[in-house]
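Subject: Predicted fold for Diadenylate cyclase, 292 residues

User T.R. writes:
Posting the sequence so we have a shared reference for the thread.
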Amino acid sequence: MHRALVYLLGPDATLADAVLAVVDVGVVSFLVYRLLRLIRGTRAVPILFGLCLVGLAYVVARSIGLETLSWLLGHFLSYSFIFGVIVLFQSDIRRALAELGRGSRLLAAFASDERAAQLGAVDAVVKGAVELARRRVGALVVLERTADLSDVVDTGLRLDAAISPELLVSVFQPPSPLHDGAAVVQNARLAAAGCLLPLSAASTPQELGTRHRAALGLAEEVDAAVVVVSEERGEISVALDGRLHRALDEKGLRTLLHALFVTGGRADASAAAGGRAGSATRTGREGSRAAL
Ligand SMILES: Nc1ncnc2c1ncn2[C@@H]1O[C@H](COP(=O)(O)OP(=O)(O)OP(=O)(O)O)[C@@H](O)[C@H]1O
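User M.O. replies:
I've generated the structure tokens; pasting them so everyone works from the same file.
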């Protein structure tokens, strides 16, 4: 043990140095772990992978003395960090700019267009879900928030259609070829249907099957809101931030989605969800996270 310490930290290493080194490595590992968890399943992963390859090429070019190439790659790396941040946080930046520009007429018009589009999408999802519940037709509708859902969209069939209650009902009504899987709403449009969601590994009430597990699975990983219509019970639920808000009526669903997508306040949304007749089911995984 002492030899290993000497080998790793040098001949003058004390026990305090060893403890410091362990804390150092522990903190860095924890930060890397949190970063990887944060970007898991997002567009940051391929971007990070691409940057690692460019970094590798830069190191090789430097070590064998390719001056021009290493200069080019070095500059590319420093600028791509800035572009990477812009790509990853584009929706937050857009929101912040729209917020900033409330005073300017041009941006205010843009913000009010976006608000009207979101209002229309929320109305379509609410009416569609209520009609599907009345018909006892099962459905899963994912509404994108800040985390990009292009990976989920890629697992289904791209539609990019104007969203309406009628379209949602016809997508989920069997024998439509798209009734299996989830529909995804991006930028107030129906981006795709027949999409595959990750299943939650958490313990859920026995009466909930794979449709609800799939909704929770996505809501545990990203900040999307997932509307679930149960085929068996005709019940409408929303999976959000790893919780399932169950048995929502039309008013409850509308208030929750309105708070998330139209007024845009997370606190409003929690209040809307918490104050409803429907109860929130905390999943096993979330329960243990909260206990930590
Ligand atoms: N990983 C998944 N991604 C997207 N959709 C899924 C996934 N797994 C299951 N589904 C959808 O859920 C349907 C199966 O629902 P199941 O009856 O098992 O769930 P449930 O939660 O009990 O819902 P219900 O109350 O409607 O019966 C599948 O036909 C499919 O449309």
